[in-house]
Structures are given as structure tokens and as C-alpha cells.
Amino acid sequence: MSTVFNIIFKCRSFSERTIFTWHRFNRTEIWREAMSGAIKKATGLTGLNVAKNPHHTLTALYNKILRAVAKMPQDAAYRRYTEQIVSERAKIVASTPTVREVEDKINCGQVEELIIQAENELTLARKMLGWKPWEPLVKQAPATQWSWPPAKIHELK
Known about the structure:
Elements lengths: L4 E10 L2 E10 H9 L18 H17 L6 H19 L3 H8 L4 H21 L26
Antiparallel strand pairs: 1-2
């Protein structure tokens, strides 16, 4: 972009006098202002299409994650940390009108990437409900479970 300035002449009239003022605007600033409301045409990431309605999609996914996590026990570590992160992101999406601001506030990539992250988190939350990692073990783990090298395991008494 060039740094050539446009000079705009404005005329203001106060009572009976006319005041002339000169305003200088950088072309790049005018271009940025005009394009700030433009629709995003590409993500710049191969195979990742632009989301049509990212606010709605993210809100729906975050609500599904919160409902899935709510079925877990209160003291489950996965529930506590996932609820904290997802509810924080849901508040940002609900309170922020523009996609760019959502991306800047969450700071974890483009909204299309956030949608993929939320879909993966929803899949994991549903799998965790089936796995139930908060329940006690079916049988006691062997004492040599974490010993190294693995050859020592065969040297049982």
C-alpha cells in the first residue's frame, strides 16, 4: 500500500462566517475502515470453509457440551475444567457482536477452528460419559505398573 495522502476539503458554516478546514486521510486507513465490515471470503487454511453462522454454531455446540458435562459427578476433574473453559467461551460468544472480536478474545484460532475444537470436545465429553473415569478401578492395578524397564514385570516372585 502506498502512503500517499488524500486531502479532503470541508466547509463548515458558523453564524455568518464560513470556516474552511483541511483533513488528511491515509488511503490505507480509509480502506481498512471500509473493509472492516466485509464478509470473510476464505479461512486461509486448506480444506476449511468459512462458517456461515459462527455465533449460532458455537453457541449450540457450547450448550451441548455443557449439557453433556452436567451429567458427570460434581467432583470429576474433567467436568470442572471443561465447564470452566466452555462457559467462559460461551459468555464471550454471547457478548461479542463481531467474529473478529470473538477470535481475538478467545485467542485460539479462527472461529472455524473454534467450531472444530468444540465439535471434538463434544465428542470427547460424550465418550467420557461412557468410560466413566471417575469410578474406582474394577481390580487393583499391579504394583509394578509404572516400573521401568518393562522386563522387570516378568521377574515376579
